[in-house]
Amino acid sequence: MKFLLLATLATAALALPSDPLSARQKKTCTNPKLRKDWAKATNAEKKSYIDAVLCLATKPSRLKVPTHSTLYDDFAWVHAKLTDPQRIHAEPVFLPWHRYFVQVYEDALHSCGYTGAAMYWDWTADWAAPSKAAVWNPVLGFGGNGSDSADGNGPLKLRIADGPFRNLRPTYWNGDVDPHWLSRDWAPAYPGQPELIGNAYSPSIMEEVFSWTEYERFWPALESSPHGGLHAGVGGGRGDMGPTSSPNDPIFFLHHAMVDKLWWEWQRADRDNRINAYKGMRNDGQEASLEDMMPMLKLAPDAKVKDYIDTEGGALCYKY
C-alpha cells in the first residue's frame, strides 16, 4: 500500500461507534425513511442534498490518507482499496456491501445538515435517452458530461462543463493520489448502441435479471450488465465513474441506491424466501455466509452481512 491508514482518528468528533448497530436503531423498524427518485424529489430536497455533498469536501478526512484529503475523498479511497485486490465486486458481498456503503454516505450527508434519505436515479426509466435524465440538470442536478474545452485536466480526463460540482477536485484516481477536476466521459450513441450504453439496462435486460430466483444467479446478473454498463456509460475512459475510485462522482451514490432498490424489489417479490437469501462462492474460495464481515477500512465500523440484508431490520430502516 502506498498510504498508511492511521490507527486513531484526530478528534473525538470523528470517533466511530464500536458497534455498527449503535449509531442506528436496534429496535423494530416501525417508521422507515422513504428513499426517493431524484426526478420526483422537490427542488428544496435536491438543493439540500447538493449542498450536503459539497459540504463533505470541506470536512477533514476520517482516514488522513493523505493529509490533504477530505471526508468526500474518503469514500473513493475506501472503494478503490477494496477493489484492488477485489473484495467487494464479483462476489456475493457486492450487494450488501454497497447497501452499507450508501448508508454510510447518507449518514455523512446528515453530518452536513441534510435531513432526508439517500436518493436514487432510476436509469431503467431513462435507458433510451439517459443524457436527458433529470439528474444531469445544471442547477438542481449533477451537471452534465465532461468537455475537451473544460480547462485543467489535460487529455486524460474530461472535466465536467457545468453544474454545482464543476469545481469539485477529487484527490484520488484509482488508488493513487492524483488531484483533478471531477470528470465524465459519456459513451456516445452509434448504430446499434444507445448513448451511455443504455441497452445495458433496457427493459429486456432487466426482465432477464429478474428472471433469476436464486441469489447466487441474481446478484451477478445485476452487477454485470445494468450496474457495470451504467458505470462504463457515464465514466467512459476519461471520467471518474470508470476507475475504482468511482465514488469521486456524486452520481455514484444515486446509481448504487438504484442498484439497491432493484435488490430490494427482488427481495420483496418473494420475501419469505428471499429476504435472507445470500449464497455464492467468495473470491477466497469460501461459501458466503450471513456472518461474513464487510470491511469499511475505518470510514465506518466493519459490519456483518446479516445486519444489512434487510432494509427494514438490523441496522437499517428505509424503503423505496
Q: On the 0-100 scale, what is the average pLDDT?
A: 91
What characteristic shape results from the CA principal axes? globular
> What structural class do helix, strand and pairing data support?
mainly alpha
The CATH architecture is: Orthogonal Bundle
Helix content class: 25-40%
Q: Enumerate how many helices there are, as a single number.
A: 7
Text of the CATH class: Mainly Alpha
Question: Gap between N and C termini, in Å?
Answer: 38 Å
Strand portion, in percent?
Answer: under 5%
How many domains make up the coordinates?
1
Low-pLDDT windows of residues: 1-19
List the helices and strands and how they pair.
Blueprint: E1 33-34, H1 43-56, H2 71-83, H3 94-110, E2 172-173, E3 176-177, H4 203-210, H5 215-235, H6 251-269, H7 271-274, E4 293-294, E5 303-304, E6 318-319
Parallel strand pairs: 1-6
Antiparallel strand pairs: 2-3, 4-5
Helix pairs in contact: 3-6, 4-5, 5-6
Can you put this structure into words, describing what you see?
The radius of gyration is 19 Å and the shape is globular. It has helices at residues 43-56, 71-83, 94-110, 203-210, 215-235, 251-269, 271-274, and strands spanning 33-34, 172-173, 176-177, 293-294, 303-304, 318-319. 43% of the residues are buried. With 320 residues, it is mostly helical. The protein has a single domain (31-319), classed as di-copper center containing domain from catechol oxidase (Orthogonal Bundle). It is built from seven helices and six strands. Helix content is 30%, strand content 4%. Mean pLDDT is 91; it is low at 1-19. Helix 5 (215-235) runs antiparallel to helix 6. The strands form three sheets. A two-stranded parallel ribbon has the order 1-6. A two-stranded antiparallel ribbon has the order 2-3.
